[in-house]
Amino acid sequence: MDIFAGLATVLSDPILLGWVFLAAVVGMIVGAIPGLTASAAIAMLLPLTFYMEPLPALAFLYVIGKSGRYGGSIAAILFNTPGTAASAATQIDGYPLARQGKAGKAMKTATLSSVIGDFTGEILLILGVAWIAALALKLGPPELFAVFFAAFIVIGSVIGKSVTRGLASAALGVLVNMIGLDPISSTERFTFGSFDLTNGISLVPLMIGIFVLGEVFAQIEARGTKTALVPDGDDAARNSLSWSEYKPCLPHVIRSSFIGAFIGMLPGLGSAIAAFVAYGEGKRRATNSSDWGKGALEGVAAPEAANNAVSGPSMAPLLTLGIPGSTIGAILIGVFLIHGIQIGPTLFLTSRDLIYALFACGLIGILMYGLIGYYGAALVGRFITRIPTQVLYPIIFLTSFVAAYTSRGNLFDVYVMVTAGFAGWAMRKLDFNPAAFVISFVLAGGAEETFRQALLLSDNGMMIFVTRPIALLFLVIGIAALVLRVRGRRRQARDHALEDA
Amino acid sequence: MTPGGSPAPRAVGIALILLGVGAAATSMGISLDQYGRWGARVFPLAGSLSLIAVGAAELWGARKAAPLDHRHVPAIFALLLVSFVYVWTLSAFGYLISTALAAPVVLWIFGVRHPMGLGAAAVLCPLAYHAIFFELLGVFPPLGRWFDLLDVLGGY
User: Fold this and answer.
1) Which residues cross the membrane (chain A) (predicted)?
2) If I label A125, which of A243, B30, B83, B101 is the partner at 20 to 30 A Cα–Cα?
3) A334 to chain B, minimum CA–CA distance in Å?
């Protein structure tokens, strides 16, 4: 019932509704620009939200994340370039539809499916999150450390092309978090005598560097390439979407929504994996599977529902355990911290109204980007082709500097941002995993705290993690995820070698 | 451990091991707590040893390397240099002058050659960012140690 109070709070506040609307528009545009992601937009806009009230700040960034995931489908359909990694699966059928002159139909399908998927995920979050938080309250430090451990392994090994480089990214994230004073004994760690380093590395400039400046560096390699719009034609019959056309998509949308919601709850997997799993499962079950890949509406509906259904449930580990399920979650941690809100299981005791109002903003945001997208996605596509990238990225470059400075009014943070930007570009270039790096950076503090608390509780040292069944279960989950992933990659490598031979 | 092979596996493996060894040595230099326990050392050491382990795995699994495209590396290093010089000039000459210099340089790196455009960026960018962040949001701007245009204009 808290959600109805949340909805009433949001609907009675026109300024808050204005922020949600702005976020829906900004997210859609940013998501639709190839190369720019919702994470980048959120990281760049994060310092601006320091000057806002907690609810508008969180709602603004949360809805940008949702709308940005959807916006990626516009670029995938119209430009044959996924605006986000999550929309790469949409491109498989979306672009052939656009080439047949059915871009409008494909975008309407993507919009409806995204809205249904996102609503499903958000409703599941609203129904289940308090229950998960109540369970999380029963976990002690050994169990929490085991959850962190499993998250490190899953985030490091499951996402990205290379298992070793993903794990290395996670280890680097942990090491960078260790810079500064030890939170318990105030011993200096990795400071090398630098006063600036004793304060540690701040999350905000690190994220602006990795996600925003890193992308600017990457865009240098794309200089001169023009984004070409597929002519959508003016044939209204080809671009309108009838109920009989959308009806076969519905079973795929419903199944994919649940696939996305389930994957969203698992830290680190994210919407790209959800979209491809849903696409694969949809194609396997489809009666017209031979049409998939050549312009089937179901092939657009399934991945779009899944990648948007991730959004809500990915907040569950963040809000209940303080474990960000995605890069957007990692950035939102910054907003919670800046506004003095302690995330974790007690959040539902201390800030229950705020959290349900945030969920209400999410629901309203979905409705807003759905309406804007259904009637205006083609317009957004045309607008994006008119944005000159040789001007856009220098503006983003300058904004990232001022945003990094704004977070603490400190030029050292700007140096951190530049270093992180270059590192972010190098990581992408060398198949490291920037998302695993950032999420591990965020997790490391909590993991260390629970590890040391667990050892203080223990009479048998490290054995406490093995003798407590829930802790052991999560340790086994982490190790099993790694083993399965390594075996999967080996099998793929062997198949690849056989193909080459 | 990647099917298609990632770029430079040997170099990356060696770099990870060296980084891990360096971090492990530094971790061992972290002071023990008052009871002589390793508390503050454990996580830095675990991170360092993990790096060594994955570096070794990278070397062990190194097979076919994916090619790296080096064509844009000079431009990327140019932008990196501009970035560091820009931060340094922020501390020396304040926000307005630094941004007036950085904006056209970055536009030029991204392929803008029109003199009017570059000139307009040199004027409009510092003004727009100053107005939004330092006037509207009330953030205290980075003041130049050597010279700051705001001293002349009387902005702060």
Assistant:
1) 20-46, 115-137, 143-160, 167-185, 197-218, 257-279, 321-342, 354-377, 383-404, 462-484
2) A243
3) 18
Question: Within 10 Å of residue A463's Cβ, how many Cβ atoms?
Answer: 10
Domain co-membership, B89 together with B37: no
Rg (CA), chain A: 22
Calculate how close chain A gets to B132, using CA atoms only, in Å: 10
**Do B95 and B45 share a structural domain?**
no
DSSP per-residue codes, A311-375? TTTTHHHHHHHS--SSHHHHHHHHHHHHTT---STTHHHHSHHHHHHHHHHHHHHHHHHHHHHHH
One domain for residues B77 and B149: yes
If you average pLDDT over residues A329-333, what whole number do you get?
A: 83
Nearest neighbour of B3 by CB, restricted to A190, A401, A493 = A493
CB contact under 8 A, A430 and B31: no
- pLDDT at site A46: 83
Q: Is B139 on the interface with A (CB under 8 A)?
A: yes
Residue tagged 């004073």 (tokens): A181
In a domain, B3, yes or no: no
Please tell me whether residues B148 and B79 are part of one structural domain: yes
Domains of chain A, by residue range, sit at: 2-500
Classify residue B1: in a domain, yes or no: no
User: Would you say residue A392 has pLDDT above 90?
Assistant: no
At A151 the three-state DSSP class reads helix
- What pLDDT is attached to residue A60? 94
Same domain as B107, residue B37: no
pLDDT at residue A48 is higher than 90 = no
Identify which of A168, A398, A493 has the shortest CB distance to residue B103. A398
The model's pTM: 0.84
Q: Which helix (H) or strand (E) element contains residue A198?
A: helix A195-198
- Do B79 and B28 lie in a common domain? no
Tokens encoding A256: 């994919």
B94 touching A (Cβ < 8 Å): no
- CA B113 to chain A, closest CA, distance in angstroms equals 10
pLDDT at position A78 over 60: yes
Residues B78 and B136 in one domain: yes
Pairing of strands A188-189, A180-181: antiparallel
Q: In chain B, count H helices and then E strands.
A: 5, 0
> Which stretch, A173-182, A379-388, B31-40, has highest mean pLDDT?
A173-182
Residues of B in contact with A164 (CB under 8 A): 1, 54, 57-58, 61
Q: How far apart are CA A215 and CA B138, in angstroms?
A: 28
Q: Which amino acid is at A37?
A: T
**Chain-chain contact of A406 with B137 (C-beta, under 8 angstroms):** yes
The pair of three-digit structure tokens given for residue A175, joined into one six-digit string: 């090491």
Say whether residue A184 is in contact with chain B using an 8 A CB cutoff. yes
Partners of residue A180 on adjacent β-strands = A189
The ipTM (two decimal places) reads 0.93
Which of B76, B82, B124 is the best residue to mutate to test the A interface, defined by the most A CB atoms within 10 Å of its own CB? B76
Return d(Cα A158, Cα A485) in angstroms, integer: 6
- Total count of domains within chain B: 2
pLDDT of residue A129: 82
**Cβ contacts (< 8 Å) between B100 and chain A: which residues?**
none
Q: Which residues of B touch A158 (CB under 8 A)?
A: none
Same domain, B34 and B80: no
Q: A243: how many CB neighbours lie within 10 A of its CB? A: 7
Q: Which residue range forms the structural domain that includes residue B45?
A: 9-60
pLDDT digits (tens, 9 = 90+) for B57-73: 988 877 777 777 788 88
Picking from A89, A424, A115, the residue whose alpha carbon sits closest to that of residue A275 is A89
- Min Cα distance B11 → chain A (Å) is 11
The answer, yes or no, to whether residue B77 has pLDDT greater than 90, is yes
Q: Answer yes or no: do A164 and B58 touch at CB < 8 A.
A: yes
